[in-house]
Design goal:
alpha+beta, nine-stranded mixed sheet, seven-stranded mixed sheet, globular
């Protein structure tokens, strides 16, 4: 077995410390934030996650599913996700794609999510990898827990996303030289989370290489001529005045402006191993890699795999320390790579919708770019690696980079006031990705890993021949499910049709806040963004006259579709959970009998005969599908009428991923 695979096996086999059976058993939190990959780009074909097999993708303004991104002159052509036809794709130097504030928002297209190719200027935005290309990353996910609804924090580039990681925002209130939407690195003055930890007496450290110097003269650790050393400028604390002006004797300097000197001797892994073996690992650590190992295009993914494996080797070198340690492996933003999930966003500026919570400090109105929402940003990979997250699970709660701070808040009690109310409502705190009371799963079967990269200290040209195939199709997702962590989403969307209005009731019966997007090709003002705090309700009324088709998309595959005609209400449908069934209540609003066809993705179809203004109940079993349901109701002789309901009924217990994925 290779060193790469053995590092996973060792990490997965060490039992968890379970003195209290709670979050209190975690004594060390380690964060390794890599660079610039979207979730679909890496994991879109992975078994049991919301990837390319998503049964209810967003429908674009042109009527096509989100996979078919418009391109070419007048947007008459299209590009679908594709795997580049290159040998050793995990070691290929795929090009970097523009990922600044403007092009990220252009691709997002005010929530329409249909301008990826023209915004990015290249079809490579739709490129993706598969298991055989990045086996180590897939093996990590299969051994631990992957989060398939983790987003970067901003529709923007590296630095401001890392400010969210280290401070909870990007100076959104305009103080301290914020807000920041670019990699300006101009020197900022709002307080960072490490400063709050320091004041509270919580130990912390940045693990990094110093490169040619952690000072302004040497670009704070980014050495363009030597990409295998330094920190690539990814220690974004160094762009804050408090750290730039810190004295060498100060705690801020010692913990954030020192590191290894790889160009002369030793490695970061030696330093980390020494801390672990001597039980000196801080309570919170952040690891910052040299450029060549960050996975930032055009650097190969497998260079990053080797680096991650060395971090795991170091962290598991003392089983007692690892038994109390959590490693969060994630990515600062998506580069310019496509992801099919429209990120949750607040109804700010010209974006329509409503919210039960404050949207303060979530709209950018500065002078450095177009006005728009800060985020959430595009989905990025997040693998939760710890003795409490073994077993190849998926956690589908919505998260972003502030969720990492909130996990630290929960464990060590140090609050971060910069995190907005809207973020705290929509995004969780990552505790749902763990099982602090259960037993560890056995280590999985692992693939061989790539060798240590050849550190030639050189840059390499972009790979040639990266273009879509002549015959395009949506990539196939691996078949099967994976165990799923319990969540706390309990949403309802109902509709009452009147002559000129669609009167919706959006209800959140759970404690966890949630975001819903309503998409429509025929309603003025669409799409609409709705944020529901726990236990809250919204009742939007949308103008309509004649035909309509509206779809609601929410967390963990929640989906509702309402299509019909305001001049013929025909039938109201409500779906509720009753025990181990989805119960559909049908209420006829026509003077004439209706023949209602109920198509069930998991069971036999049925036809229900409903008299004029009649009522009936239809029971759909969900026990065999672990709470998942997916039904479509149509009415004979009324082809435009449709009611679709899909999602998962939460029980507070572990379940499985959506069986529709990868079918």
């Amino acid at each position: 077995m290779s060193v790469l695979s053995s590092s996973i096996a060792r990490a997965a086999s060490i039992p968890a410390y379970r003195r209290t059976g709670s979050l209190r058993d975690v004594e060390h939190i380690v964060v390794l934030m890599q660079e610039n990959r979207s979730f679909d780009h890496y994991f879109g074909t992975m078994r049991g996650v919301r990837g390319y097999g998503d049964p209810h993708p967003a429908v674009l303004r042109n009527g096509n599913p989100v996979w078919r991104q418009p391109s070419g002159k007048h947007l008459k052509k299209e590009v679908l996700p594709f795997r580049p036809d290159l040998d050793n794709l995990g070691l290929a130097f795929l090009q970097d794609i523009d990922h600044g504030w403007e092009t990220q928002h252009d691709a997002f297209a005010h929530g329409n999510h249909d301008r990826w190719v023209p915004a990015k200027g290249t079809p490579v935005t739709m490129a993706h990898l598969r298991r055989q290309d990045i086996p180590f990353h897939y093996a990590l996910a299969d051994a631990f827990t992957v989060c398939d609804a983790y987003h970067c924090s901003m529709l923007g580039p590296t630095d401001p996303n890392r400010y969210y990681l280290w401070t909870g925002w990007a100076g959104n209130n305009g103080k301290g030289r914020g807000p920041v939407i670019s990699n300006a690195e101009a020197g900022y003055r709002w307080k960072t989370y490490p400063q709050r930890l320091q004041k509270a007496g919580v130990s912390w450290r940045i693990y990094q290489d110093t490169g040619s110097g952690l000072n302004r003269k040497h670009n704070w650790g980014f050495d363009f001529l030597h990409p295998y050393i330094g920190n690539y400028g990814d220690n974004s604390l160094l762009y804050f005045d408090a750290f730039q002006h810190a004295k060498p004797s100060s705690a801020l300097y010692r913990k954030a402006r020192t590191g290894t000197d790889v160009k002369n001797s030793g490695t970061l892994f030696d330093q980390l191993t020494h801390a672990v073996q001597n039980d000196k690992l801080p309570q919170i650590s952040w690891i910052v890699a040299p450029e060549a190992f960050t996975e930032h295009p055009n650097w190969p993914t497998e260079y990053g795999a080797w680096y991650i494996s060395q971090v795991l080797q170091a962290l598991t070198s003392n089983p007692e320390v690892w038994s109390k340690t959590v490693l969060f492996l994630t990515y600062d933003e998506n580069d310019g790579f496509f992801d099919h999930q429209v990120p949750p966003y607040p109804n700010v500026g010209h974006l329509n919708g409503d919210s039960t919570v404050s949207l303060a400090n979530e709209l950018y109105t500065g002078t450095d770019g177009s006005h728009g929402p800060y985020g959430l940003g595009i989905r990025v990979p997040m693998t939760v690696i710890s003795p409490w997250s073994t077993g190849g699970w998926v956690c589908s709660e919505t998260f972003d980079h502030t969720s990492i701070i909130r996990f630290m808040e929960r464990r060590f009690g140090v609050p971060e006031p910069n995190i907005t109310q809207w973020r705290r409502t929509v995004c969780g705190d990552l505790t749902s990705a763990f099982d602090f009371s259960g037993s560890p799963s056995p280590a999985p079967t692992l693939p061989p890993g790539p060798p240590e990269p050849t550190t030639d200290d050189k840059r390499h040209p972009d790979a040639h021949g990266v273009h879509p195939p002549a015959h395009q199709r949506v990539p196939r997702q691996e078949p099967g499910t994976r165990p799923a962590r319990p969540l706390d989403y309990h949403l309802k969307v109902d509709l009452r049709v009147t002559r000129h209005r669609l009167a919706f009731t959006l209800a959140n019966d759970g404690r966890r806040g949630a975001h819903l997007q309503a998409r429509s090709r025929d309603l003025r003002g669409a799409p609409f963004s709705y944020t529901l705090g726990g236990g809250r309700t919204l009742k939007p009324e949308l103008e309509a006259d004649g035909g309509f088709d509206v779809s609601f998309h929410g967390p963990n595959g929640y989906f509702r579709r309402f299509a019909g005609n305001t001049r013929q209400p025909l039938l109201e449908v409500r779906g509720r959970r009753e025990g181990r069934h989805l119960v559909l209540t049908l209420h006829g609003r026509s003077d004439h009998p209706l023949h209602v066809h109920v198509a069930d993705a998991y069971g036999p179809d049925r036809t229900v005969h409903l008299g004029g203004h009649g009522r009936k109940r239809v029971r759909i079993p969900v026990a065999d599908t672990h709470g998942w349901y997916d039904v479509l109701l149509t009415v004979r002789d009324h082809p435009h009428y449709k009611r679709g309901l899909a999602g998962h009924f939460e029980s507070g217990r572990a379940s499985t991923s959506d069986p529709q994925l990868g079918r």
